[in-house]
Structures are given as C-alpha cells and as structure tokens.
Design goal:
The complex is a heterodimer of chains A (about 625) and B (about 290).
Chain A lengths: L13 H16 L7 H18 L57 H4 L4 H9 L12 H11 L9 E9 L15 E6 L28 H4 L3 H7 L10 E3 L2 E3 L20 H24 L5 H28 L3 H12 L4 H7 L4 H4 L17 H6 L9 E4 L18 E4 L8 H8 L1 H10 L33 H11 L5 H7 L8 H4 L3 H11 L7 H7 L10 H16 L10 H4 L1 H9 L2 H8 L4 H4 L16
Antiparallel strand pairs in A: 1-2, 3-4, 5-6
Chain B lengths: L1 E4 L3 E6 L2 H9 L3 E2 L8 H10 L19 H14 L2 H7 L1 H13 L6 H11 L9 H15 L2 H10 L1 H12 L4 H26 L3 H4 L2 H8 L6 E5 L3 E3 L2 E3 L4 E4 L1 H7 L20 H17 L1
Parallel strand pairs in B: 2-7
Antiparallel strand pairs in B: 1-2, 3-4, 4-7, 5-6
Helix pairs in contact in B: 5-6, 5-10, 5-14, 6-10, 7-9, 7-10, 10-12, 12-14
Classes of the chains: A mainly alpha (about 625), B alpha+beta (about 290).
Chain lengths: ~625, ~290
C-alpha cells in the first residue's frame, strides 16, 4: 500500500480553484465572518475545499480484514461499520485507527521532558479551573448532553492503560489529595497503545485505534459489534429492548454497570445521556411501528435495520440543522448548515453549480466522496471536541407538574439542586426513575450549559472519581482538565499556534492576539513564556470567538472539514440516501421530523415548555415552579 | 547568519561546530520539512518530498528522531556495517579497482560506477551498478541540490521518476541502500577523486598513512537542511517557527576536524557507515600504496 492516502486524491474543479484564489485575496482584507451571508457561505466552502485537499491524512487501518460479508450489508449498516465503503470494506469500521488532520510529520509528540511542560496541573489550576460559572445563555443544557450523546462513542480510544503513567509534579500548595499522590506526583494514565503492525510510512506519528465505528451510524444506541447489538434488540418487530418501570418503559440496566442503562455505548453516563439514549430508543421503536404498518411482511431483521438507518439519519439531521446552528448562531452558519443538509434554496445557484452539486442539493443524496484520504475520525477532531466546560457543577431538577401528581422525589418540595456528581454514574438510573423523563428533559431544557471559554472548566471534573465497570480495575482519581491537556500532547496533536497554521490560519505572535482579556493573556505568558507553547485546548478556550459563535474560529476550521465529511464519506448519507434503501416512509420521516417533534411524540407533556421554541437546544419556556 | 523575507523565506545558516552539533541534537529542529513559512521552504520541501513517498517507505535521511523504525533500522544497519573485515573481503574487487585508479588515474570502468557498486554490495553481494544506475544517482543528486530549472526539466522529462524507480528497484526496496547508492555515494566519489589527486602529487602515496590520506580527503556533506516546527532556542539563539535551518557541515568540520561532524558521531542520527567508510578508504589507499611499491 502506498502512503499516498490509499489512493485517494482531491481533484478540485476549475470553479473551486477560482473560489480558492479569490477568497485568499478577499480574506487578506476581510475575515469570513464579516462578509455578507452568501459570500461568507462560499468563503466557508472555499475553506472546506482547501482543507479537503490538505488536511486529510491516512494512518493505515490497523486491522487486517473487514470480517465476513453478510447478506444485507449492501442495503444496511453492519454492526461494526465495515462494508460502508464497498471498495474499501475496512474503512471506518470499529477498531480501525484514527486518522489525522495534519501531516504525519507534524503529528509527532514531544519528548518526555517537553511533554510535561508546562505542567498540566498548573494549567488546570491557573487557566482552566472555573472561578464562577459562565453560562452560555443562548443554549440549554440539553445541547451539552446532545454533543456528548453524539460523540461519546465516536472518539473511543478504549480504557487508558495502567503502568508507565505520566508523573506530573505537584506544585507547593496544590490541593490534590495526599492519598492520591505518588512520590509527590499526580499520575495520569496513558492512552491505550495501538499494538497493530505499523506501516513504514507512518514515521514517528503515533497511532491510536477507535474502539467503536467511525461512521455517523448511531452506534451509541446500536453498539459496535453484532453480539452487543443482538443484546440491545428485543428480537421482535425490529425493536430495541425496553423494560417497564413504574408508569413507562425505559432501557434495561447494564448488568456490568450499576445504575447505568444498557445501550450501545454507556461510558460517562449521566442524566443528560440517559434521557437522549432513551428518547432515541423510543424513536427507534416508533419508526419500527410505522414500518410494520407499511410493510407488514417484513421480519424483525428488516424492520430493525431500516429503523436504524432512519433513526441514525434523523439524529444526523438534528445535529446538522439544529444543534450546530444553535451553538454557532451566525447568519452564515444558519444558511450554511441548512444548505449542507437540504441544499441552497437559491434557484440561480442550482443553475450555476448543477443540480448534483453538494451545495445545490445538500450532501445527503449527493455522490459519496472520501476526498484525499479514507474516511476516519481524527485525533485533531477529537481534540477540538473537548467541550467539558459545557457542563455545570450543579443541576437543578424541576417539576413540570405544578399541580397534582408530582413524582415522588419532588412531592411537596421546591425544585432541587444537585451536584453534578450526584446526577451521573451509578445514581443515574435511580434519579431518572424518581424524577421521570419529562421532568429531567424539562430541567435540562431550561438551564444553561457553561460557555466554552477559559476558566470555565467544571471543578467537579478536576477531582473526579469515575466508577469502574464490573470486573474492571479501579480508575484512579482524575483531574480531567489535566488529562485533556495530556491527551492532546501524548497523541501528537499540535499545540495551538501550529494547529492554527496547519489548518490554514496565520500564527499568532503574541498572547494578546489570542485573547482580548489582558488578565488571561498575562497568565498565559507567565505559564507558557512562548506563545508557540500554548496548548491547543487552552488556546481554543481563550480565543475570542466570532460574533454569535459558541466556540472559537480555530475549532470551527476543524468542524468545517470534519462535520461535512462524516456525511459526505458515508454511503448511507450520499449514494444510498434514497427511498430504495430507506423506504419512502423513511425518507419522509427524516424530512418531516426534528428534535421538537421527537420530544413531543414521546413526551407530549413538554408541549407548553416547547411552544414557540424554534430550536430545541435554545432555552425552553419556563412553565413550572422555580 | 539569518535571512527573513516575509512570505519568501526564513533561513538560518549554522556553521559554528558547536551550534551545528547543538542544533542537530535539539528537539526544536526537525528533519522533516513542512513547506510552510515561505516560497523557498515550499520549493525545497516539495523536492525532498519525493524521498518520503517512494514505494510507501521513507528514506532514512528523512526520518525524524522520534521515529522508532529509524532507530531500529539504524542500529540494525550499523551492526551489519560494523563487520568491516567481511565486507572488505566482499568488495575487494571494487576496492582494488579504485586503488588502481588512485594509483594510475585510469580504470577499466568509470570510478564512480565502481564506487556505486561497492556501496551497493555492502547491502547486497550481487549488486550491479551500471552507467544507467549512476546516471540515475546523478539525476537524484541534481534534484536535491541543483537549481530550479534543472530540477524542473528532470521532473518534466520523467527522468526523476525513472531514476527513483531504478534506484529503488536495484536496492530491492531497501531505502538505506537506495539512499547510500543514490545520495551518499557522491561524497565517496569525490573523496576517491581527491585521493587520486593526493596520490599523484609528489611522493604522497608512499609517504602518507591511510589515516593521513583519509584525514586530508574525506569531507562532510556540504550542508543538510532542517526546519523548526515551533519557535525555540538553540545554543542561546532564538529560531522562529518554520525557520529553514541549514547546517553547514563541511564548514563546521573544517573548524573542528576531530568533532566527527562528517558522520554526526555520537548523535542520534550517527551515520551507520561511520566505521565502514574509513575502512573502505583505508583499504583503497593501502592497496594503491602496495600496487605502487
């Protein structure tokens, strides 16, 4: 195999070359976010083409074969993501390697002494720790839950490995518990090693494997191997197995993880994940009912696989046209994300670009294209998705029912405020039962998440004890902020300034160019000394975002490429996004539903809270006692 | 010396032996070139990129310090090339022919082809060099160090690709052999030529010991090119991000001949041929001396 990205190359059209050259000139004078909407949207398209040409790098698959072909793989998704690309069946399947958005020669971790400089613990304490909660007022907490629901399986590097931990010296006065110290150091476990055979062209770039499928296939609900998937299924009418508890059905408990629901991927469980996993399990079963009525002759397998396709596409659509414009509230993005899914509405654009162009018709239904490398999630995309500041340190649980039958936990009491640690892990299932899904959804719907900015990292995560699954070794106490820093460093993700450069932005030359806050710039200078040393996470959180944006422009550059790529590379969103595969009913279901309709289908009691709310990820109406 | 022309080049030349050694050892300076930082960087990186793609492997001189395959292969090759007596026996016909050339100034085959074959046979005992293989090595050398017009013509004519293919095929995919027979050998060819000139002047051949002859004829490569990925300090000198760092090895060696700069002695990238090259040259000189006696 050649290192030429397994034979994939990006071939820009004449128009794309012209746009690229034009926008290089335009952007010399004006930033994309200050351009009129349509011109700005084409600017983003030009960025995307540039990134597609230069920022996709194959790291090899890391698995020898795609496993056995099974009838049906031509029509629906395999459990592990194999055979999505029929010509390259290993592409994107579970246990294949993460790719890269930077050249492999740039993805080399620093040597051990530089790797720990500056101390990730100092960064955690001085730059990331939340001093006071900074809210993202245009979003609700469901938006934070949603992004975790979307990605928590997607970037699974597997459990970290014990032994040979990073030893982070603790400065004098550090409050890290004495019993968790080892020779005066805090230990951070390393990412599990990729033990597969390395190709000689990888050079010094480390590789890591994704334990789950890389595709946007709703694997968090359906699992990433056949055996798990069969346990999730009821094996009747294509449905997901639910159990009845009190007045409604819910996902069963995971026998290996107390208090956690059994689903495709249930790491880092909390009430936000619980409501969304259950919600889309209910949605799956609703789709099965509709399919059963339309196609009564179909067996369990046909019903399950079609419902999975439809449900997965609906989730992708909600993410594209609701969540993303919710967090990136800029006119260019409002236009761009809608166009990404449904195409640009302007007729003249269709005439100019052709009806088959992805801008005219949207990516769904356009031709599959891997551009310049086989599809894979990337380490850099993983890095920009480190969004822990979205989480608050406390969650307030409200009751929708002002009068009458309050759930047990809320009877006779005002809304309760719980520390975040008390709404996650083993207590989650009990909380869901006590408070009820609708109340939890409503509570998440009216609260703000944290803003993605510096000094807003939730403090509970900076001293966090994660529950281990049954039979797994105990997980040591973690400072997740320090862990996040070390993950990027050990995986060879470039630091902030080089990351900018490699994604097509100019390097900054001073700390003041990153942030307009003199206090933060001074603190960064004190810790890092050199602006090139600023960690990616710190730079992304410190950077002043464009107007309306919930995260930095540098983060956005990675999104421009990868958010569309997870659609454009996937056969089931492109070549096979058609009624013959999805059914007419399926295409209509995807077209006609939204987060709001899904919520209301399963929780009609949320109607008043959602009335007039245009985007389900923005704060809902307050309808209950406060 | 340093030059910075925004958008065109950011360049630092290092000639001081201590600076050269420190830059080579520093984590700030990398072997791989990104092509970022200016048009000159872009053009040089594009040239060298051909050695990172051929046959799905990376040529050893372009592998970075942290590359485990580099260190493994380097160690392996160093061990193989340390068996000097066996290797000298293997290439005895070539060293004899070169000795005759040093002594008389003429050989049956052009000396550069004999050098290429000698180098190739350190890897494969049946390596056969030819005019075509030597021309291929020259084409690659021109590609690396020639001017833009020559390089453009090489690429346009397809000669670059043909040369790469031929060298890699003759080296049976072994990138160390390819590097040695296409790039590193030119230094040996020049050294043999200098030996010939040395031998012809007065009674040097009789008077000088092999070590003295080597000391006055063996040179380091003129320069190697490195890059800083991020800003950093080398020997107290600040180098900005994406600076092209030119290590002027021969210039540094002249200032400090015993520092082992020609082989990056004791460095992470010590040339695996650091023992065999002097042994080969000594053998050539000894045989030339014996032939003259």
């Amino acid at each position: 195999m050649s290192r030429e990205n397994d034979g994939f190359e990006f071939h820009p059209t004449g128009l794309q070359r012209l746009l690229d050259a034009s926008y290089r000139v335009i952007n010399f004078f004006v930033r994309w976010d200050r351009l009129p909407t349509l011109i700005g949207a084409f600017n983003i398209a030009a960025f995307r083409d540039r990134l597609r040409a230069h920022n996709l790098h194959h790291t090899g698959y890391g698995v020898d074969s795609a496993g056995e072909w099974k009838p049906g793989y031509e029509r629906w998704r395999s459990a592990d993501g194999s055979y999505n690309c029929l010509a390259h069946p290993r592409m994107g399947m579970a246990r294949t390697r993460f790719g890269r958005n930077v050249p492999l020669t740039e993805a080399v971790p620093e040597t051990d002494e530089a790797l720990l400089e500056p101390s990730p613990r100092v960064i955690s304490r001085e730059l990331l720790a939340r001093h006071e909660f900074i809210a993202a007022s245009s979003l609700n907490l469901l938006a934070a839950a949603w992004i975790q629901f979307e990605i928590h399986n997607w970037f699974s590097h597997g459990p970290p490995q014990s032994g040979n931990e990073f030893k982070v010296p603790l400065p004098r006065g550090d409050d890290w518990p004495q019993k968790e110290r080892f020779d005066g150091c805090m230990h951070i476990q390393r990412t599990a090693r990729d033990k597969s055979t390395r190709e000689p062209w990888l050079g010094a770039a480390p590789t890591f494997r994704n334990f789950n499928s890389h595709w946007w296939d709703a694997g968090q609900l359906y699992g990433h191997d056949h055996a798990t998937q069969m346990k999730i299924r009821s094996r009747h009418d294509g449905k997901i197995r639910l159990v009845r508890d009190r007045d409604r059905e819910m996902l069963p408990e995971d026998p290996d993880s107390k208090g956690v629901d059994f689903t495709g991927f249930n790491d880092n469980w909390w009430i936000g994940l619980a409501v969304l996993h259950n919600l889309f399990a209910f949605e799956h079963n609703a789709i099965c009912d509709a399919l059963k009525s339309a196609y009564p002759e179909w067996n369990d397998e046909e019903l399950f696989q079609h419902a999975r396709l439809i449900n997965g596409a609906l989730i992708a659509k909600i993410h594209t046209v609701e969540w993303t414009p919710g967090i990136l509230a800029h006119p260019v993005l409002q236009f761009g994300m809608a166009a990404q899914w449904s195409g640009a509405p302007q007729r003249w654009l269709h005439l100019l670009l052709g009806e088959d162009n992805e801008v005219s018709r949207g990516i769904p239904g356009s031709a599959t294209d891997q551009h310049s490398a086989p599809y894979a999630m990337t380490e850099e995309f993983t890095a920009v998705y480190r969004m822990h500041p979205l989480l608050p340190d406390t969650v307030r649980i409200h009751s929708l029912k002002v009068k009458g039958d309050k759930p047990k936990a809320l009877k006779g009491s005002k809304p309760i405020t719980l520390n975040f640690v008390d709404v996650q892990g083993p207590v989650t299932r009990g909380l869901m039962k006590d408070h009820g899904f609708a109340n939890v959804l409503y509570s998440l719907g009216i609260q703000n998440p944290g803003a993605l900015c510096i000094r807003n990292y939730p403090n509970f995560l900076r001293q966090f004890k994660k529950a281990a699954r049954r039979g797994d070794p105990n997980i040591p106490l973690m400072d997740m902020a320090a862990v996040d820093i070390m993950r990027d460093r050990e995986r060879g993700v470039p630091r902030y300034n080089r990351f900018r450069e490699l994604l097509g932005k100019t390097r900054v030359t001073s700390f003041e160019e990153i942030t307009s806050s003199p206090d933060i710039a001074d603190k960064m200078r004190e810790i890092y000394k050199d602006v090139d040393r600023v960690d990616l996470l710190v730079g992304l959180m410190a950077e002043d975002p464009p107007k309306g944006f919930g995260f930095s422009d540098t983060t956005f550059r990675a999104f421009i490429l990868m958010a569309s790529r997870r659609l454009k590379s996937d056969r089931f969103f492109t070549d096979d996004f058609r009624p013959e595969i999805y059914t007419e009913l399926g295409m209509d279901w995807i077209q006609n539903n939204s987060m709001k309709s899904v919520l209301l289908r399963h929780f009609p009691e949320l109607g008043q809270a959602l009335e007039g709310v245009k985007n389900s990820f923005s704060p809902w109406n307050v309808v209950a006692e406060q | 010396m340093r030059i910075t022309i925004p958008g065109i080049v950011r360049l630092a030349w290092l000639s001081d032996p201590d600076e050269v050694v420190a830059a080579n050892a520093s984590g700030v300076v990398q072997r791989s070139l990104s092509g970022l930082g200016g048009l000159v960087q872009r053009s040089i990186a594009a040239k060298l990129a051909v050695f990172q793609k051929s046959d799905g492997d990376i040529w050893p001189a372009f592998r970075d310090r942290a590359d485990r395959l580099r260190s493994d292969r380097q160690k392996e090759l160093e061990n193989a090339l340390a068996k000097t007596q066996g290797l000298l026996k293997r290439v005895a016909p070539e060293t004899s022919a070169l000795a005759a050339y040093v002594r008389t100034g003429s050989t049956n085959r052009p000396p550069e082809i004999i050098v290429q074959q000698m180098v190739g046979r350190l890897f494969f005992s049946d390596y056969a060099a030819s005019e075509e293989s030597y021309d291929a090595a020259c084409a690659l050398q021109t590609w690396v160090s020639g001017g833009p017009i020559k390089s453009y013509l090489l690429k346009l004519s397809g000669e670059l690709e043909r040369s790469l293919d031929l060298i890699v095929t003759l080296s049976r995919g072994d990138t160390s052999c390819a590097h040695a027979t296409a790039i590193a050998m030119h230094n040996l060819v020049d050294t043999i030529e200098r030996m010939r000139r040395l031998a012809r002047a007065r009674d040097n051949l009789q008077k000088l010991s092999p070590q003295e002859a080597i000391a006055s004829t063996l040179r380091a490569p003129n320069q190697v090119v490195r890059e800083t990925r991020d800003a950093g300090h080398v020997c107290g000198m600040h180098l900005g991000a994406r600076t092209l760092v030119v290590l002027r090895l021969e210039c540094a060696r002249r200032q400090k001949p015993d520092a082992g700069i020609e082989f990056f002695a004791k460095g992470w990238n010590q040339c695996p041929a650091h023992a065999i090259v002097p042994a080969l040259l000594a053998d050539v000189w000894k045989k030339a001396k014996a032939g003259a006696a």
